[in-house]
Zinc ABC transporter permease (Actinocatenispora rupis), 278 residues
Amino acid sequence: MFAHPFLQNAFLAGTFVALAAGLVGWFLVLRAQVFTADVLSHVAFTGALAALAAGLDARIGLFAVTLLVALAMGALGRRARPGDVVIGGVFAWVLGLGVFFLTLYTTVRSGTGNGSAGVTVLFGSIFGLTASRAVGTAVVALVICALLLLLARPLLFASLDENVAAARGVPVRLLGFAFLLLVGGTAAESTQVVGALLILGLLAAPAGAAHRLTTRPLRGLALSAGIAVASVWIGLTASFLVPVLPPSFAILAVASLTYLGAAVGTRLRGTRPTVVER
């Protein structure tokens, strides 16, 4: 299986993207900001299509627009934690822009380029990554992981009790902005693996399973990242062995089934971790 270069690239990029998604996703669930990631996934779609419509590399729009909107959402929210009204407003605005740029791209640019690029942005193209793009994606993911781990301790404090954290001198608002940038970066890079429509599953399902299985932060972070990476590995292998399975579907199916198994298991045992131990 690993004799194929396209699969080597897929495993390289997918592994590190999953690692970043698992770590960021654990904090998303803890901070109750899962749907913020959903909005940013649609922003990634809109940004990529805007770049394609302008004749630019889709990655320029992916990262630039997603990071800018993440900062804007933080500025509109209390202590850089956008509320439901902000999330709903941005979501509607972004969907409208996405439709506009999709129409513009398909009518203006599709005749001179690859008309399937819009579908690729929506559903991912992990088997189509070149070696250079796979390495670049892995490097970006590693940077996100490193930055998140540097911020993990104060971010955990601010997530559990932001008022006490602020009173103790923790820069809660600045941490909120930094975290939103990490979420935006993760959403942008994950688009290449599972697509803009399915990013939320890779961010939320492994993290949700980890939160149900343990209350310890370090163990939860490791478990969330491990489940995400395992989902990518199993999904890619299943997609290779059964070519009719799209890789993004296979990856998300494994992640979702893992969450379902964790939910059922904790209910059968009569336990459900709800409080994170400091």
Q: What stands out?
A: The first helix runs from residue 5 to 30. The chain has a mean pLDDT of 84.
